[in-house]
Amino acid sequence: MSDHTQVKMTEMNYGKDRPKAENPVKIEDLSLRDGHQSLFATRGRTEDMIPVAEMMDEVGFWAVETWGGATFDTMHRFLGEDPWERIRTLKRYLKKTPFSMLLRGQNLVGYRNYADDVAKAFVERAAENGMDIFRTFDALNDYRNFETVVPAIKAAGKHFQGCICYTMTEPRLGGDVYNIDYYVSKAKALEDMGADTICVKDMAGLIAPYDAYNLVKALKENVKTPIHLHSHFTSGMSSMSHLKAIEAGVDIIDTCMSPYAFRTSHAAIEPLVMTLIGTNRDIGFDIQHLAKINEVLERDVMPKYKHLLDDSKVSIIDINVLLHQTPGGMLSNLVNQLREMDALDRINDVYRELPRVRKELGQIPLVTPTSQIVGIQTVNNVLFDDENERYKMITGQVKDLCYGLYGKTAVPIDAEVQKKALKGYPRGEEPITCRPAEVLEPELEAAKEEIKDLAADLDDVIIYALYPTTGKRFLKWKYGKEPVPEEVKPRTMEDVKKEDELIKKAKAGKLVEKKSKEEVPEKGENLRTFNVFVDEDYFEVGVEEVGGTPLVSYIQQIQSQMPAGGAPMAAPQPPPARAAAPKAAAKPAPKAEAAKPAEAPKPKAADVGGTPVTAPMPGMIVKYEKKVGDAVSKGDTVVILEAMKMENALPAPTDGTIKAINFGDGDAVAKNDVLAVIE
Ligand code: CO
């Protein structure tokens, strides 16, 4: 390796005029897409990219990533910006450097497989608007999901970059599935498809430095196509992995400008430039020019975004990746999900069950959306399965996966799990083996028809076709049919200054003048006392309306929630003995929840006659599959509940007739709410 690391520096020269290296590492900058997607919830606005755009164009990047991934969704949903307009605007400032976008294969820039006609039109319009390099990936590395977009990229004369999602089942690269041979065979498949470059996409920051070295070496020996490494910093390894990949001959590396770097984003460009100065792989960038860009970013741009940084932890790395070989984001989602279900104590069971579920579901890579699919099914298994039965509650997305709608899994799905998942599946109980989009009907003409009153061109139609609800709302904003809501408008530097002043004041203790004790009013004669029950807790609350009679009627509110013709509602239970101690609870209730007596507790399982179908977790009712009076057999789906973006079919616990349906489609429900009653 010594030939790669020789330092032949003749003078201290950071400038652009230093001698060009033999084989300079090429750099793609991700600040304007993955950088703000990783650090600032994809909230970067076009107006905040313009101040540095021309300077960025002078750096000499191989490409700048400006579009794709979550930007399309976020821009039209949260920023009130036309996603297509961003490409055209930035092109006016970045005239020399090619633009790159992240394309989710047949999922385009959304979260499901779109029909072929939409996929083809999307790529054509992206190319026409100014996109040059299409970085294309599929969550299952099933390249049949590229078969529609790649010919469209090629036909437009653009660059097709094929990705291999990097994943593993062992602490380091190897094992039966995701070993060097796997990645080499995927790279060959991409080369055969006509890939102009091949990207190892390490979205979770899993790749260890020596694995990066061995992998890049093997890829360079087996394919002629240039190799590109995309590795997130999440676990803290990516700077080291970059260096080892460079030693192994990688052609292109992804980095960010330092204000957009590190944490769950990418390693920064500046240290890498310094590291390689004087070597045969010197990048050749002018580090003083980079410093000037950073100055502008820090002064004019970052103040508007720093409030979006996740500062819940001091550490900038997440070592969960090193401990569990699973993406950090996925694990924090699992923790949140368990917390919502009051089951945080089961986290170690989840860690144990996760590799098993992943294996049964075909050992799939863990990347959005597959990481969610595996994660949530694992939590369901831990919480609801028993020793007699596994996979008691299978999510809709796992059923889709078992049917083949996402594509082919790395190893076959466990036959028993697959059979169980597909029992009663609406598309059929026999899984498909064809390219998933082949079972999808064309969508574009219908979309054109539906949105013809709002859409001015095909770009508008595509916004609607990809995101019907939020897309339509955006088009109303765009054409002035509806006012743009305040929360969608940009933050200005003035807003930031005002907030900073408030924070300064607050820190100095000058923000809120605390009321002194004397100012608490005397209890008057209109004071009335109420018993408030929150789950198992009981509070006694004094309510007094100033200058009048209180109009709080807690008991009536409970009764108004009784299902029509439903089972009798139990009256509030007597307070538990511990709360009945005289005056012990007479002060204002200590818990915030107790201050909201209007939100009477929803019916609980124990309160009803018949057999209740209860919500096993908080969520939203997608739809009831049965109505009052329907006969059901044990195991039939009664209601679909969405929780953590996954759909869960809740089965009838017994045979009988539906006596009551207690909620409507779209209602939010709490854990243990009685959704229906069977008698
Ligand atoms: Co990324």
CATH homolog superfamily of the largest domain: Aldolase class I
Structural class: alpha/beta
What's the CATH class of the largest domain, please?
Alpha Beta
Strands of the widest sheet, in order across it, are 1-2-3-4-5-6-7-8
**What is the CATH topology classification name of the largest domain?**
TIM Barrel
The amount of beta strand, in percent, is 5-15%
- Oligomer kind: single chain
Main pleated-sheet profile: 8 strands, parallel, barrel
Computed CA radius of gyration, to the nearest angstrom:
29 Å
General description of the model:
This protein has 679 residues and is α/β, with parallel strands linked by helices. It folds into 4 domains: 281 residues, Aldolase class I (TIM Barrel, Alpha-Beta Barrel), CATH 3.20.20.70; 113 residues, Cyclin A, domain 1, CATH 1.10.472.90; 33 residues, no CATH class; 74 residues, RNA polymerase II/Efflux pump adaptor protein, barrel-sandwich hybrid domain (OB fold (Dihydrolipoamide Acetyltransferase, E2P)), CATH 2.40.50.100. Helix content is 34%, strand content 14%. The protein has 23 helices and 18 strands. It has an 8-stranded parallel barrel, surrounded by 6 helices. A 4-stranded antiparallel beta sheet has the order 11-18-16-13, with no helix packed on it. Helix 9 links the parallel strand 6 and strand 7. Helix 8 packs across helix 9, helix 17 packs across helix 18 and helix 20 packs antiparallel against helix 21. The protein is globular. Cobalt (II) ion binds next to loops.
